[in-house]
Structure formats: structure tokens, C-alpha cells
């Protein structure tokens, strides 16, 4: 006779596990952490006032529950007057590790999605000026709208192809995955020297130039060749 599993004696109810949908399935991908790589497209690095040839990759984090799934709006956040869009390839890991070799890094990838790294640019700029962390500008609630995951078995490993974002039908951002300074295997390998990566981790892989502000009522449409299209309304 099987015994019932013993219930944990939590003092408060645990928060639900954040998840992403898997395209074409009712399966869910549980999210462990969200890492974002900064200034990973040369033209965006220049746009933000930096030299892309001198910087190693750097990373910041968003909280897992900042994900906004397709079908919901992006709520305009509080305490800001300058919220920017950044369309990005999202890499989802099926297994982790430490000191992962570049040569085997892609073996750790479950699939890919199209995501948005929404940024309170005014708060980020203030933090930069004062030498403070970026959490208020990057890790606020609902700051990571994201489409469903497309497994590697269906889409392979996208390394080139169009990346764009339109606001109300007007193209704002446009680039190509082959313009990424640090490619996906390199990002995974480098990041695994800084953190122990785990199954369920997401990596937002950087954005092309053209970032800009959104206002309530705007419709954001992002696209990555081979991965698909996402659509979010700013409310």
C-alpha cells in the first residue's frame, strides 16, 4: 500500500511556479531563473553610448514571475515616464551545469522563444549615474513579456535571420541574429562560469538597435525568423 506523501509545514502558502507555454502542446516549462545579457548587438551598444569591441558580456537578472505570457497585456509600470521595448531571442535550458564547454553548450538548450525585455529607462539611467544596481529599471513586475517556447526538435538552433519589433505597425527595431556579439553557446559557457546554471533557466540574448518608448494603448509586435511572432498591448 502506497503511503500519502507528507505535506510540508510551510508557514505561508508557497507561490506558484512561473511557467511558459510550449508551442503546439499543453505542456508547461517551469522557470528557474531569468538571465539577460546586456548590449549584445553592436549597433545597440553604440546606440547606448558604448564600444562593443571592448566589453566582455555582462548579465543582469529578472525575477521568474516577471514573465507575461502571450494573451495578456503589458501593464504600464508605476514610478516611470520612459518605458522602453527591447525585443530578444529567449533561450530555455533543459539542463544546467558549471563551466560548460562552448562545444557542448547547445546540448543544454530545450528551445527558443521571442521575448521583450521591458525597461524603465529613466530609472535605469539614474541607477547607472549613481553606480547602483539596475533592479528598479529591469526587474519590475511584468517586465518580461514572452511568447511560447519552440523546442529545438522543431526549430533547431536559430543563428541567423530577421529580428524586428513594430509599434502600431511602424518598425522600430530591426536586425539579424547573426549580429549578436556573443553567440548562444558562448553566452551559456560564459554564464556557467559565473553561476551554476539549472534546468528551467531562461536567457534573454540581447536586442538590436532602435529601442524606444511605449505609451498606454500601443501594440507591440515582435518577430524572430524561425521562432515566430508575439503581440502585446500596453495597458
TrEMBL record:
The keyword Nucleotidyltransferase does not apply. It comes from the Bacteria. The keyword DNA-binding does not apply. Gene3D superfamilies: Fumarylacetoacetase-like, C-terminal domain. Residues 34-234 form the Fumarylacetoacetase-like C-terminal domain. Its EC number is 3.7.1.20. InterPro entries: Fumarylacetoacetase-like_C, Fumarylacetoacetase_C_sf. Keywords: Hydrolase, Metal-binding. GO terms for molecular function: fumarylpyruvate hydrolase activity. This is Fumarylpyruvate hydrolase.
Amino acid at each position: 500500500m502506497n503511503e500519502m506523501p507528507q505535506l510540508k509545514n510551510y508557514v505561508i502558502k508557497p507561490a506558484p511556479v512561473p511557467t511558459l507555454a510550449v508551442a503546439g502542446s499543453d505542456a508547461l516549462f517551469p522557470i528557474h531563473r531569468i538571465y539577460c545579457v546586456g548590449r549584445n548587438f553592436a549597433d545597440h551598444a553604440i546606440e547606448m553610448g558604448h564600444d562593443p569591441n571592448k566589453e566582455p558580456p555582462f548579465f543582469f537578472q529578472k525575477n521568474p514571475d516577471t514573465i507575461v505570457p502571450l494573451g495578456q497585456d503589458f501593464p504600464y509600470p508605476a514610478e516611470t515616464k520612459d518605458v522602453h521595448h527591447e525585443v530578444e531571442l529567449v533561450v530555455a535550458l533543459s539542463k544546467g551545469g558549471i563551466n560548460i564547454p562552448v562545444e557542448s553548450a547547445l546540448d543544454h538548450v530545450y528551445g527558443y522563444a521571442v521575448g521583450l525585455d521591458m525597461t524603465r529607462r529613466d530609472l535605469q539611467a539614474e541607477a547607472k549615474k549613481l553606480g547602483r544596481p539596475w533592479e528598479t529599471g529591469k526587474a519590475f513586475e511584468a517586465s518580461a513579456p514572452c511568447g511560447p517556447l519552440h523546442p529545438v526538435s522543431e526549430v533547431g538552433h536559430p543563428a541567423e535571420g530577421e529580428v524586428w519589433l513594430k509599434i502600431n505597425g511602424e518598425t522600430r527595431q530591426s536586425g539579424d541574429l547573426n549580429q549578436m556579439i556573443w553567440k548562444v553557446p558562448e553566452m551559456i559557457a560564459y554564464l556557467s562560469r559565473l553561476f551554476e546554471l539549472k534546468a528551467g533557466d531562461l536567457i534573454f540574448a540581447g536586442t538590436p538597435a532602435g529601442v524606444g518608448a511605449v505609451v498606454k494603448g500601443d501594440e507591440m509586435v515582435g518577430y524572430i525568423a524561425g521562432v515566430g511572432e508575439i503581440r502585446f498591448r500596453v495597458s
